[in-house]
């Protein structure tokens, strides 16, 4: 039997990108605890979702900016964890999907981690709408384009219009339904986001 | 709070980066910058650096390297800057628009086609 280490090595080799891959792209899935972020990433990812973390200080600066050891010793550093998956789009483009917690401290790291992101999906559990208010706020603040995906946990009595109202959604922001456990449904959420980006781009061009 | 098996005590991170604090290459490593090894590990090389070179025989994103090494992204970036300075890796930075501008429609179309083919 192979050891766990060589299994891991073999798994990584199977998961390797093609030698021609040269352009990484990002989409972020954000939402409250337990809303289905990891599930959605897993549904569409070609690799088992991996977990990683970033360290920050209270001032929102990283250890790379605070004088290294001193910064670390100052005990002001906090760690935020996020998971990610991957979709090879073609010979050159590779899309990385990040599942990011919506909690407050995370947003200090947004620019450092997710600048240049194509856009975001805000996952909403219709039974706990208020959990997504903060994320929507921050995305608007950062000027990151996003759509809202209502995850189907069953038993939601809200109509789409009521949900829009409760989220105070701009009429231009698409609201779609999704079941994060379904690959097809999760894929359609991502497509809806990219279609939205195309619409925004077209509007921007006309405005010029 | 930390995952079991992860050792990210300040001392270890300090040793790994030899106390250097700043990585400021011309084009900073993005989470999705794809890294490719230009040479194999050499005997006696720091084990994390050797691991990166082995991992990057084929293009591998910064975030994948960090996850594999179980290191924070910022520490991983410092190690990568060293390897880049030494000419041991090359970096394929994302072409997507930086900052808040929208990516160009060609890229968006390519993403759509890729997603529809899933
Ligand atoms: N019914 C239903 N259950 C779902 C759906 N998406 C996720 N779940 C379940 O909800 C639970 C939480 O899902 P996760 O994907 O772990 O949620 P998360 O947002 O990553 O959670 P945290 O990372 O802990 O914040 C799991 O038991 C999932 O199986 C969905 O669309 N419908
Ligand atoms: Mg999760």
UniProtKB/TrEMBL annotation, chain A:
SUPFAM superfamilies per UniProt: P-loop containing nucleoside triphosphate hydrolases
InterPro entries, per the entry: Gliding_Motility_GTPase (IPR052705), Gpn (IPR004130), P-loop_NTPase (IPR027417)
The keyword Acetylation appears for this protein: no
GO molecular function: ATP binding; GTP binding; hydrolase activity
Family matches, as CDD domains: Ras_like_GTPase
Keywords: ATP-binding, GTP-binding, Hydrolase, Nucleotide-binding
Domain of life the protein comes from: Bacteria
Homology family: Belongs to the GPN-loop GTPase family.
Name of the molecule in the record: ATP-binding protein
Automatic annotation (TrEMBL), chain B:
Pfam families: DUF742 (PF05331)
Disordered: annotated span: 1-25
Biased composition (Basic and acidic residues): 1-11
Superkingdom field: Bacteria
Name assigned to this protein: DUF742 domain-containing protein
């Amino acid at each position: 039997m192979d050891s766990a280490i060589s299994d891991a090595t073999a798994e990584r080799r199977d998961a390797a990108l093609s030698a021609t891959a040269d352009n990484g792209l990002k989409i972020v899935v954000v939402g409250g605890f337990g809303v289905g972020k990891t599930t959605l990433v897993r549904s569409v990812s070609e690799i088992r979702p991996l977990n990683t973390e970033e360290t920050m200080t209270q001032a929102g600066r990283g250890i790379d900016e605070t004088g290294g050891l001193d910064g670390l010793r100052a005990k002001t550093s906090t760690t935020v964890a996020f998971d990610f998956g991957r979709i090879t789009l073609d010979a050159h483009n590779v899309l990385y999907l990040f599942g990011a917690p919506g909690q407050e401290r995370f947003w200090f790291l947004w620019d450092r981690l997710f600048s240049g992101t194509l856009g975001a999906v805000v996952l909403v559990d219709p039974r706990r709408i208020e959990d997504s208010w903060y994320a929507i706020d921050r995305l608007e603040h950062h000027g990151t384009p996003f759509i809202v995906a209502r995850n189907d946990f069953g038993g939601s009595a809200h109509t789409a219009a009521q949900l829009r109202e409760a989220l105070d959604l701009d009429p231009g922001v698409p609201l779609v339904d999704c079941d994060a456990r379904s690959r097809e449904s999760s894929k359609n959420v991502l497509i809806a986001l990219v279609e939205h980006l195309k619409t925004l781009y077209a509007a921007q061009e006309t405005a010029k | 709070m930390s995952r079991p098996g992860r050792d990210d005590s300040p001392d270890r991170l300090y040793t790994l980066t030899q106390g250097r604090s700043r990585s400021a290459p011309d084009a900073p490593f993005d989470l999705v910058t794809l890294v490719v090894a230009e040479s194999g590990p050499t005997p006696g090389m720091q084990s994390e650096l050797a691991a990166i070179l082995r991992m990057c025989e084929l293009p591998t994103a910064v975030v994948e390297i960090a996850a594999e090494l179980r290191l924070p992204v910022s520490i991983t970036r410092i190690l990568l800057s060293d390897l880049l300075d030494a000419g041991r890796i090359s970096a394929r930075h994302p072409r997507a628009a930086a900052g808040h501008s929208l990516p160009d429609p060609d890229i968006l179309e390519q993403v759509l086609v890729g997603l529809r083919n899933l």
